[in-house]
Specification:
By secondary structure, the protein is α/β, with parallel strands linked by helices. It contains eleven helices and 15 strands.
């Protein structure tokens, strides 16, 4: 298994529109481990399209409990179970993740019970464990180290950037955050920094589609990072490759890849990728210069 990052869903926010991208989720394959980070709507199909057999589901990390990061967590695990999952799955998330999982199991109790009896499946409730984390060390085993940093995403207080280190490879995912200077030290020297990004010129058009435009704009400006700020974070962290993800807006026909690049370039002149659904970034000796699409 070659080490790689796959952007499964590149859109910020939970809404889905015709022809547009899916909400946030990523796959990290590093050191022989398959790690799903966030489970926005579409994560299951994204994993299959990326070539992953769902019965190989292993580790899942949820950065925070906004719906565009957690809505398909339960359905992903349940679908993997119906696809033959018989090995343990570990879910890591902030406070409240255990409650989500318990309520999902209750909602699916009829289906789970009847499939165990009728199809001879193992009990899904015994296959899955949930571990809630805060800032600091999250997991260290078999050469994989995962650490968390609380970031600034009001009004959500339990929102975490995650760093994955294995051997000499490292990936940092910012989660949703306003510009957060401590992220520079947290991501220092990482091969890849996946950071959320927003373009201010698209915000008014975005919020005009909703019934709560003024309130939504207030939230976006207080809780997310403009692309120019992301460039400064990447520079100060001296990362190898910057990947923009959780794009806001992600489906504006008046905004193209060049607009994102132009916003970042004044501060960041290193390798840069604008995320899109299905984008693959290899994590190897040429991570800093190479990318391809599925």
């Amino acid at each position: 298994m070659a080490d790689r990052l796959v952007i499964l869903g590149s859109k910020g926010g939970p809404a889905i529109r015709p022809g547009g991208p899916s909400p946030t989720s990523s796959l990290i394959e590093i050191g022989g481990r398959r790690i799903v980070v966030d489970c926005g709507l579409g994560v299951t199909r994204g994993l299959v399209d990326a070539g992953m057999h769902l019965n190989g589901l292993d580790l899942i990390f949820v950065t925070h409990l906004h719906s565009d990061h957690v809505l398909e967590l339960g359905p992903l695990v349940h679908t993997a179970w119906t696809a033959g999952l018989a090995s343990p799955v570990r879910i890591f998330g902030p406070a409240g993740t255990g409650h989500y999982w318990a309520q999902f199991l209750k909602s699916m109790a009829f289906d789970i019970d009847i499939r165990i009896e009728d199809e001879g499946r193992p009990d899904l409730r015994e296959l899955v464990s949930v571990e809630e984390f805060g800032e600091g060390a999250v997991l260290e085993e078999n050469g994989l180290k995962v650490t968390a940093l609380r970031v600034d995403h009001p009004p959500v207080t339990q929102c975490y950037a995650l760093r994955f280190d294995s051997g000499e490879r490292s990936i940092v995912i910012s989660s949703d955050t306003a510009p957060h200077p401590p992220l520079c030290a947290f991501a220092q020297g990482a091969d890849i920094l996946v950071h959320e990004a927003m373009l201010e010129q698209g915000i008014d058009r975005l919020v005009s589609r909703t019934a709560n435009g003024a309130r939504l704009k207030e939230h976006l400006m207080a809780s997310h990072s403009l692309a120019a700020d992301v460039g400064r974070i990447a520079k100060d962290a001296a990362v190898g490759h910057l990947v923009l993800n959780h794009l806001i807006p992600a489906d504006d026909p008046e905004i193209g890849v060049d607009d994102w690049i132009d916003a970042v370039r004044p501060a960041w002149d290193g390798p840069l990728t604008v995320g899109s659904d299905g984008l693959v970034v290899p994590l190897d000796e040429q991570t800093r210069t190479r990318e391809r699409r599925l």
